[in-house]
């Protein structure tokens, strides 16, 4: 996956497309290590293969630092092209010009549904649309005047 160039210029420019920030929860009764393995060792490649993402970042949550915070198991950041906001074919990376576009879309959505069901992400998930900014450090010495 290649990161597209930020829009605009200068430090902290916004990356083209949008980011889906997914909050994952481990189902009650599922062993934490089994949950992590299903997510990272099995589902990750499925998600990369069947979605039209150009960036994918996983954050495993070890513990909450705020009293009373909801129990989260992980936070995932998936970067999609702008078209994926309103086009399911773009979301799943399927070229509409393909002769088998509808069948390929079904294959991909079925694979994603089956995979997310194995670790509870088909039920216990919240996804928030967001933008991504790539911080650009100032040139060495520029802060020294």
TrEMBL record:
Molecular functions per Gene Ontology: oxidoreductase activity
Cited Pfam families: EthD
Domain of life from the UniProt record: Bacteria
Coiled coil regions, renumbered to chain: none
InterPro entries named in the record: Dimeric_a/b-barrel (IPR011008), EthD_dom (IPR009799)
Residue span, EthD domain: 28-84
Name of the protein: EthD domain-containing protein
Biological source species: Tomitella fengzijianii
């Amino acid at each position: 996956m290649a990161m597209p160039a930020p829009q605009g210029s200068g430090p902290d420019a916004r990356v083209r497309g949008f980011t889906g920030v997914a909050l994952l929860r481990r189902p009650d009764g599922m062993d934490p290590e089994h949950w992590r393995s299903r997510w990272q060792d099995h589902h990750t490649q499925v998600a990369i293969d069947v979605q039209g993402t150009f960036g994918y970042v996983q954050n495993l949550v070890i513990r909450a630092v705020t009293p009373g915070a909801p129990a989260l198991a992980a936070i995932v950041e998936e970067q999609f092209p702008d078209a994926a906001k309103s086009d399911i074919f773009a979301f799943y990376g399927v070229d509409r010009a393909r002769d088998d576009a509808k069948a390929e879309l079904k294959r991909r959505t079925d694979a994603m549904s089956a995979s997310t069901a194995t670790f509870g992400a088909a039920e216990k998930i919240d996804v928030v649309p967001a933008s991504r900014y790539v911080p650009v450090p100032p040139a060495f010495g520029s802060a020294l005047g």
